[in-house]
Amino acid sequence: MWKIAIIDDDRQVLKGMKQVIPWEELNAEWVGESLNGARGLELIRAKQPDIVITDIYMPIINGLKMIEILREEQYKGKFLIHSGYSDFEVARKALRLSVEDYLSKPVSRNTIRDALLRAIASIESEKNVILEQEKLRDQLMLYEPFVRKELLKTAVTGMMGETEKEAVQILGYGDSSHMVIGLEIMRTSRIAGVKASDRLLFRFAIQNIIQEILEEEHYVFDYVELHGYHAALILHFDKSSLYSDIIHQVKQSACKLIDCIHQYLQIDVRMGVGGLKQSWADISDSMEEAFQFLTQEAASVQASSLYEYTKLSPVPSAHAAVKLKTMKFYQELVEDIKQTQGKNAPKIIRHYISALKQSQHPQYGRLQLLGAQFWAILSYALNDEEISLEAVSMEPSIERELSQVHTVDQYESWLNGKIAQICLNQQWHDNFKHKIAIDFIKQYIYENYSKEITISDLAEKVFISKNYLSQIFKDATGETINNFIIRVKMEKAKGMLFERKYKIYEIAASVGYKNIPYFSTTFKKHFGVTPAELIQ
Q: Residue 196, by phi and psi: left (phi above 0), alpha (psi -120 to 50) or beta?
């Protein structure tokens, strides 16, 4: 019910007002009355009525002063002024204080009824707005991790536009410096030939190992998935940190990550360490430096698969300041192929070729290396969508094609030709029809595996029916949603078992299983051994 309070220094007015208000019709109740503004303040603070009917000229504190104090206290109720005086200055101040209505004494039953109905309608409208805002805020909280990841990706790849720059405060770390560690999963027999869903789980497991180790070592960091088998690990340090002070610890941690990933997953990775940057605007430079090992321009740290960026001697050219953002080029091109089937590819390639011409004068062998690198990264990226570039390409051998490329202009033509062949392939179009929804569902499962996840819940999040979602998910991944959820939970449980820090019942609970025997049965069905057998 709507709560109404009445403040007036005339007892007869208080009595009459209570009699004239159609309480039942309005679904309202009387919660109290006061003879002056001071007592009115106490009443309103205690009862928090939805609507207050008040006189202006009263003892101790007048009506306007009472309203002003309550507005300063963030009281949101509606005020109806009921007065026998007509004063322009009073009306102006009442307007400033967001008074709902100004009623002249004496007031009729119909007048007070209509005024109260308008106030109630206004309250209902504002409540609906608040509910919509809360609903939107809840949705934003749901999507915030994904928005954050996209912002991180645009920042680290140098693709951040003006809109993203304004939203960069979402990322935080404004008072930090940043360093990127580039990660490449080596395409060994352990990785090559497995299904896309298995590759996703491998990457998920790698991310878990990195997260657990770096949290133990008290790093502040973000992990960003890039194209194919590449990722960027962004480390955040105090603004006053110097490269020379942190690089030794960073290299030790990176070597530990490489060793643990190999030990627990039998997956080989290599990493590159970029420079330390003072702002988000320069973080893409650190990423380019971190991935210099792809073009064999970095020095290997001892005998490990860790590379440290070393600045090359400056090229004596008027355009030496132009930086060739190779990783940005790959990221832009892969994203454009996935999102628009290559509509912007010629423009992206033209910009890259222009920078390539200005930054250096590649020799024949250099172009072969760039072409092979481009094809490898594109192959890795599209493998996740079950697209084989060997099947798409019209030439049986990329090496043979590249042997015919002798100039930068020829290299540009070759790039454009390969993108056109890929994007004209009908298999490509079919595989990407529901990619955004499927990617969202996978990411949601990765981040919420500890909770109970139902297909109905997932279908609501992407606004399609659960039957259709089940169909397109299986078409895209080759397995059911429920099986994918179980696989994610089991991989996480396996990783925790290898840590040897948790009891089996703790691990079961952390991945969403309350029934320990059922957890053990599911684990054995998935890996062929029970959790207890695995750690023995």
A: alpha
* Cα distance between residue 30 and residue 490, in whole Å: 60
pLDDT band at residue 297, thresholds of 50, 70 and 90? very low
Cβ distance 271 to 307 under 8 Å? yes
- DSSP 3-state of 83: strand
Alpha helices in 384-454 (DSSP H): 389-392, 398-402, 408-423, 426-431, 435-447
pLDDT score of 429 more than 70: no
How many residues does this entry show for the chain?
536
If one compares 239 and 104, the residue with the highest pLDDT of the two is 239
Task: Tell me how far CA of residue 379 lies from CA of 106, 134, 240, 418, 476, in angstroms.
Answer: 83, 43, 41, 12, 18
Q: What is the amino acid identity at position 411?
A: Y
Reported as type and span, the H/E element at residue 273 is: strand 269-277
- The residue assigned the tokens 């192959």 is 379
For 406-410, the CB contacts below 8 A with 24+ separation are 406/364, 406/367, 407/367, 408/353, 408/356, 408/357, 408/362, 408/367, 409/353
CA atoms within 13 A on the CB side of 130: 7
Q: Determine how many CB atoms are found less than 10 A away from the CB of residue 142.
A: 11
Average pLDDT, the chain: 81
**Strand-pair partners of 98:** none
Give which of 501, 511, 489, 504 is closest to 534, Cα–Cα. 504
pLDDT at 252 over 90: yes
159 versus 14: the higher-pLDDT residue is: 14
- In the chain, the N- to C-terminal Cα span, in Å, equals 65
What is the reported pTM?
0.54
Helix (H, G, I), strand (E, B) or coil at 424: coil
Q: Which two tokens stand for residue 122?
A: 């206004």
Q: Which residues contact 435 (CB under 8 A, 6 or more apart)?
A: 338, 385, 476
Helices (H), 173-296: 196-216, 243-265, 283-290
Alpha helices (H) in 341-388, listed in sequence order: 345-359, 364-383
Q: Buried b vs exposed e over 95-107: b needs ≥16 C-beta within 10 Å? A: eeeebbbbbeeeb
Q: Count of CB atoms within 10 A of residue 14's CB?
A: 18
User: What domains are defined for the chain?
Assistant: 2-129 (3.40.50.2300), 169-312 (3.30.70.270), 435-535 (1.10.10.60)
* 312 secondary structure, DSSP code: P
Element (H, E) at 327: helix 326-340
Strands 176-185 and 269-277: antiparallel
Residue 291: in which H helix or E strand, if any? Answer: none
